[in-house]
Amino acid sequence: MKIKAAVAREAGGQFSVEGIDLADPNDDELLVQIVATGICHTDLSIVDQIMPLPLPFVLGHEGAGVVEKVGANVSGYEPGDHVVLTFNTCGACAPCSDSHPAYCEQYMPLNFMGRRLDGSPTLHAESGEAIGGGFFSQSSFATYSLAQARNAIKIRKDVPLELMGPLGCGYLTGAGTVMNVLRPGPDTTLAVFGAGAVGMAALMAAKAMNAGKIIAVDRVESRLALARELGASDSINTADQDLAGELAELGGIDQGVDTSGVPALISTAADALKTRGTLTLLGASKEPQVTLNVLPLISGKVIRGVVNGDCDPVAIIPQLIEMYLDGSFPMDKLAGFYSLEQINEAVADTHSGKTIKPILKMDE
Ligand SMILES: [Zn+2]
Ligand SMILES: [Zn+2]
Question: Of 57, 71, 129, 306, which residue has the fewest beta carbons closer than 10 angstroms?
Fold first, then answer.
């Protein structure tokens, strides 16, 4: 079928919005009409070739939409179901069987191969050229996506679909890290390094779990203002404040969530950990080498990486929607809406810090 999609063609270049062909769903797939999709840093890291997947590619992995067709082998779905698309997993390997699907052994081929597992492409330009698709089993910078049962999470129909897409990646990553891995309590001082969408989701989850002190760290003042509105008790602007000194003045941290991947920030965060504290690493930057001061780490401190909040999307996505409805996960405060044609403007606004979570709406 003919669809409209934003195609990444050149490393570091702009997206081009084009009419392309989407293959028919096979027996294991769902055809989903995309209502809206978030833009996440992982999309941009492929455009910039920090993750060097071969271009051209249709990216997008925070899609939300309506099921239109259901493959013969897919049970439990019917046309009209509302779904949030998330990362795909095999459901059968050891991590999947042990309720840690974010560490699925098939994670790379299922989410990044650009084709079906049998090697067939699902997207073609009008010229006949194959285009990378199936990104996170969705490629949702498009009016339609092919998804699978394991990465299409059914949600209630009485919530605005255009807000829900980022639950599939950015929000579950930040919130899941706090709710599943760190589990702060009233005596916990938790710091979030980088107040973008993932950091804000972590902060909202920490607030919902009644963390005692929540510190937001960023270098954009408008983000810190929003972080305080969302529940940060303290904020540090690294553009004009000494991070190590400020963290020491606040008594150090029990838990940290680094979303920046910036080596200097990670070293400072590790130094600020209190005895038996834990620092989680959620993002990487172009410079992945970090210098660590080992001696103080020996006092029971933990530095651990976390993928996708170490969560089961089937559990956490509906849970976060309930928290949104009861006011404890106000994700609407993060969203800025754009049309698919405005994708390059949306990317520029996320780089400048103007928009925390850009969401492309397909009907505009
Ligand atoms: Zn698996
Ligand atoms: Zn993402």
Answer: 129
Q: How far, in Å, from the CA of 89 to the mean position of ligand 1?
A: 5
Structure tokens at 51: 């993750």
Backbone torsions φ then ψ of 316, nearest 5 degrees: -80, -30
Answer whether CATH 3.90.180.10 is correct for domain 2-168+334-361: yes
Q: For residue range 279-337, what is the model confidence (pLDDT) as tens digits?
A: 999 998 888 899 999 999 999 999 999 999 999 999 999 999 999 999 999 999 999 99
Segments making up each domain of the chain, as ranges: 2-168+334-361, 174-307
Ligand found nearest the CA of 41:
2
Cβ atoms within 10 Å of 341's Cβ, excluding its own = 13
Name the nearest CA neighbour of 140 among 308, 342, 362: 362
DSSP one-letter code for 128? S
| Cβ atoms 147, 138 nearer than 8 A | yes
Could you say which architecture CATH assigns to the domain 174-307?
3-Layer(aba) Sandwich (3.40)
**Contact present, 208 and 328 (Cβ < 8 Å):** yes
Distance 80 CA to ligand 2 centre (A): 25
Alpha helices in 31-180 (DSSP H): 41-47, 94-97, 107-112, 161-164, 170-176
| The pair of three-digit structure tokens given for residue 198, joined into one six-digit string | 């993932």
